[in-house]
Amino acid sequence: MGDEQSRQAGDGVAPRPDEPDLAERAVALLRSREIQAARRYLLDTDARTLREQWELTEIPAPPFGEEPRGRRMAELMDQAGLVEVRADTVGNVLGRLPGPEGPPFIIAAHLDTVFPPGTDVRVRHEGDRLRGPGISDDGRGLAALLALARTLVSCRLSLRRAVLFVATVGEEGSGDLRGVRHLFGPGGPGDQAAGFISLDGAGLDGLVTSGLGSIRYRFVARGSGGHSWVDWGTPNPVHALGAFVAAATALDLPTRPTTTLTVGRWGGGTSINVIPQEAWVELEVRSEAAHVLDEMDEEVQRLAHLHVARTNERSAPGTAPVTLRVEDVGRRPVGATDASSLLVRAAMAATAAVGATPGLALSSTDANVPMSLGIPSLTMGAGGEAGHAHTTREWYRNVNGPDGILRALLTVLLATERDS
Predict the structure, then answer these.
(1) What is the β-pairing status of strands 359-363 and 206-211?
(2) Rounded distance, CA 149 to CA 144, Å?
(3) Is the bond into 257 cis (omega within 30 degrees of 0)?
(4) Domains of the chain: total
């Protein structure tokens, strides 16, 4: 899910008194002949869902390398009965549910993983678990997306809204949400969307309704370099960035709203007895509030320039100064969907109807973008249990797997039957 575990953000919210109780409606819907048939269909086809989860996970989809998995996803979306299946200019794969026209309700899962090219992504059985990099995040989401589409088509469930299914690129890390940004960009199919659900990973209870914002940088310092003895006094890029990192990590960060600063990677230099010509460091700031991100952005960049300048001031006369380049690696917007919105209340009612206790959470996912645009959006797990996400030891166990997809189905039905 995104690039971190979600954080609990709140408890259940009662429905507004001026509307019918969605919890009662969810239970009635679940008991209806049509949804009971859909539930049986999900159970009967669960083995197929797991096969597709396994198959898709074993197609490498490293950052900016999602095309092979996207091609297979397009074939499976077509087989599921979606129409107008296509890839857009950034690599998202889209398919429409036959039915009404108009502003769509969008259901998505992401194609990409955090794992670089060359990672062994083979899946294997270990007892009652499937183990493999990406088997849950987001192999489970992609398989659930297909199962949900098949159920809607095969069980002939009618919706009042057009529904667009999307397998997105660039959800993880350096992808910087590029797929969903394109989807919701000017003139994109999400521009006037009625709502958005991201199926991301496993789980049956959590609902991500708040999007955690972040800014990611790469600071690159360059100098003339030289011999560690003969050229001593030449300003050192590593020293400059080291002083900057020490100052940045000593900042007194806000706790309300929660804010973090993490140095994730750094490097540079060629040998222990050489003044480096280049050094670099990658740093991330996260916060629940956009104004805090803006303040941190200004402060972090100020510190970087300050400590490069101080390093140059201490250099020997006549030596070339160190220069600094600041690169934006990614900026994820802050956003939230109010707990009183129809979509969130529908998802909570659907969660309770399938026997789980709903909880609202904060995370960084594809839903950040539509949330930031004011479009009702959330992210939910697609059933089952999982662990060790973003590691090669990632696993998935199919406990209540079909119920996770049923929860998504109920949510869409409840959220669209009265939204127009």
Answers:
(1) parallel
(2) 8
(3) yes
(4) 2
- pLDDT in 10s for each residue of the chain, 420 residues: 555 445 544 433 444 433 458 999 999 999 999 999 999 999 999 999 999 999 999 999 999 999 999 999 999 999 999 999 999 999 999 999 998 888 999 999 999 999 999 999 999 999 999 999 999 999 999 999 999 999 999 999 989 899 999 999 999 988 999 999 999 999 899 988 999 999 999 999 999 999 999 999 999 999 999 999 999 999 999 999 999 999 999 999 999 999 999 999 999 999 999 999 999 999 999 999 999 999 999 999 999 999 999 999 999 999 999 999 999 999 999 999 999 999 999 999 999 999 999 999 999 999 999 999 999 999 999 999 999 999 999 999 999 999 999 999 999 999 998 644
Helices (H), 314-420: 342-353, 368-372, 401-416
pTM of the model: 0.90
Q: What six digits make up the tokens of 194?
A: 């009625």
Domain that holds residue 291: 220-332
Are residues 58 and 169 both part of a single domain? yes
Give the pair of three-digit tokens for residue 378: 């959330």
Which one of 301, 332, 363 terminates a domain?
A: 332
CATH number, domain of 340, equals 3.40.630.10
